[in-house]
Design a protein that fits this description.
The chain has strands spanning 14-16, 23-25, 54-64, 72-81, 87-98, 103-112. It is mainly beta. The structure holds zinc ion (ZN). Zinc ion binds at residues 17, 19-20, 22, 31, 33-34, 36.
Length: 121
């Protein structure tokens, strides 16, 4: 194993973004939530360039309130399941209200990054 190399032991390790406190990958050079550049950790090591994730999955939908009906309230709930169908995360991403003729567009994207020189293939 080479020093500084990403191994399967540290693939998927997380840290807290100093700007927005979101839990992000330790290898991230840019926080996916607040989009701030991060200046420490593996991403800041010499020779390591900011890696842009490949969007493996992206889904978008718009909820349009029908005119004439009363106000609506909505909850955006994200659930994450593993290969066995077991729920490993569940989070309320946002809540709000929709009045007649208003709309909200929801976008879900999953970015995948292959660690440099490491990880199981
Ligand atoms: Zn952040």
């Amino acid at each position: 194993m080479l020093p500084g190399r990403v191994t399967s032991a540290n693939v998927g390790r997380t840290r807290t973004c100093p700007h927005c406190k979101a839990t992000i990958l330790e290898s991230s050079a840019i926080c996916p939530q607040c989009r701030h550049h991060l200046k420490f950790g593996a991403a800041a090591a010499p020779g390591v360039q900011a890696r842009k994730g490949e969007t493996a999955f992206r889904m978008e939908g718009t909820l349009q309130h029908t005119a004439g009906a009363g106000d609506w309230e909505y909850s955006v709930v994200l659930t994450l399941r593993n290969e066995k169908g077991e729920e490993i995360a569940r989070q309320v991403v946002g809540v709000g209200a929709l009045r007649p003729t208003e709309a909200r567009t929801f976008t879900l994207s999953v970015d995948v990054v292959k660690p440099p020189g490491g990880g199981r293939s």
